[in-house]
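Database export, one record per block. Field names are fixed; values are copied verbatim from the stored entry.
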Amino acid sequence: MLIFLAAFTCMTSCIKDEAANKECDIIGARVVGDEYAQYFSEQSKMSITDITSTESTISFELRPLASLPNQLPVAFDLTPGATIEPANGSMQDFTNGPVTYTVTSEDGEWHRIYKVEFKEPVLPSFTFSFENVDISEKTTAGNQYNIFYEKHPTTGERLNIWASGNEGASMIFTYKGPEVFPTHSTEQGYKNKGVCLTTIYAGDMGKAFKRPIAAGSLFLGKFDINKVLTDALKATRFGIPINRVPLKVTGYYKYKPGAEFTDKDMKIVSGRTDEASIYAVLYKNKDSQGNDYYIYGAEVADLDNMLSNPQIIRVARVSTLPPTDEWSRFEMLFDGKEVDAQIAKNKGYNLALVFSSSKSGAQFEGAIGSTLYVDEVEVLFEKEEEK
């Protein structure tokens, strides 16, 4: 009995004296909440497992061109007894770059610093060949029009980054098939398919609203159908978030202006010839109060004065697009203010890229029949080491 008590006392003493854990590692991380799945190409990318003890940066891969919400909850699996600050699973703002976490071992003696970030797959450039085209569902008037989209070069995911005025055009007159809408696909591109943009008559309803023409247009951004009749110039919301600094845009075009240039009252403007328009704008997507900011059709009417807007950083444009029946190369360089590399890295800038068959189409001025073809467009960016 005495031997048993002695052995029990020794065992108890050993348990009490066992040292607290000195490990302070993150071994797993995950975004908590199904509502955040929309920011990832697949749900499995919401968690990272088997994080090694040598890693100090934990990177979640976002859906391409996704814009994060201001707050996200990330939960961590830690080595036994370890604690983490900020609190495990707490809401944090990752939109301004990585968030730093400190893990402390159970014995309080050891610490490890981790940075947690959310990154989209990096693309060397944006190349647009306009091969990916859908046909919309039939509207109540029986209309169908083309919708352009892109595919991510590595994941194959559909990227709905292009918009046009086709949806608005389908509301106010009947065209039926895609080929008679202002913006549609053509099989006769510079290489395979391309885009055809044509300025057309907007019908009696358009004329009654002093919007007698509809210029063919295609742009990176969104089209807001709810503003077509109430505030048409704000129906076109230009720009998508990017995380690099654009240098120039190149591509190929053909152009033929219509016969008679008319104003918004459909009066012929003698001596004026219609012009096509190709331009790009880099602008800050948050205002000074931190609110989301966008540019609209009305704000890019005068490219010469755009840089007076503190939100707009750089503008690139093709100064002239001479009429030509042959595919011709264009190139435009970005010029303007200094770019903040950190803002760019955190997708604090939007890139707008716009094509229009009538330069003044946003003011409903132009020539019916003006036709612009565009294909094989590429946006080139600064290299990381050049920033």
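Remark 1: The first helix runs from residue 2 to 16.
Remark 2: Residues 172 and 205 are 6 Å apart (CA to CA).
End of record.
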